[in-house]
Amino acid sequence: LASLREIYWDNPGNKILRIKEVRARWFLGLRAAKEIVETYDRYLDVLKKWEADFAERKSTANAMFIEQLSKISYR
């Protein structure tokens, strides 16, 4: 996974270069390398959605916590 990450960050906008790099590093055929790159791209898309969802849930939880704190009487 670390190597895929390196390949992606070396060529984030160029899928063809990523496929070529995967082929060169692991001595794979075109189809296998393409499938690996596309699978990793889908993985990154899912990860980004999860991170966005987590950030939204965290923000909501923080707001609820602050609201509950404001209701506490400190006498």
Description:
- The mean pLDDT is 93.
- The protein has helices at 2-10, 15-26, 30-71.
- 84% of the residues lie in helices and 0% in strands.
- The longest helix is centred in the C-terminal third of the chain and has 42 residues, at 30-71.
- The N and C termini lie far apart (55 Å).
Summarize the helix and strand pattern as letters: HHH
Rg over C-alpha atoms, rounded to the nearest angstrom: 21 Å
Global morphology: rod-shaped
Main β-sheet description: none
Number of helices: 3
Q: Structural class of the secondary elements?
A: mainly alpha
Number of E-state strands: 0
Query: Averaging pLDDT over every residue, what do you get?
Result: 93
Distance between the termini: 55 Å
Strand content: under 5%
| Low-confidence residue ranges | none
Percent range of helical residues: over 70%
What is the fold's blueprint, element by element?
Elements: H1 2-10, H2 15-26, H3 30-71
Write a short abstract of this structure.
This protein has helices at 2-10, 15-26, 30-71.
